[in-house]
Amino acid sequence: MAPIDRIPEDDWTDQDLLTKDEAGERLDVEITAVTGELDRLRAAGIGPLEQDEAGLLTRRLEAMQWVRASLRA
């Protein structure tokens, strides 16, 4: 395997970093989307396949809410 040529300096800047506020805003958008998807599944009636999907979405939602709360602390 040929060695990889590196650039002389890193090409990122501080503006490339995601702030806690920006991360929180993105989480808020995603939390709203997942909540809506769960509501849609529940309104359509939950069968075995939807139950699995709802379980995964619920776990994802809870994880995002936990992270969001930790960003506020």
Explain this structure.
The structure is a single chain. It contains 2 helices and no strands. It has 73 residues and is an all-alpha fold. The protein has one domain (18-72). Helix 1 packs antiparallel against helix 2. The longest helix is centred in the middle third of the chain and has 25 residues, at 20-44. It starts with 19 loop residues before the first helix and ends with a helix.
What is the helical fraction, as a range of percent? 55-70%
Per DSSP E runs of 2 or more residues, the count of β-strands stands at: 0
- What is the overall number of helices? 2
Q: Evaluate the radius of gyration.
A: 19 Å
Extract low-pLDDT stretches. Answer: none
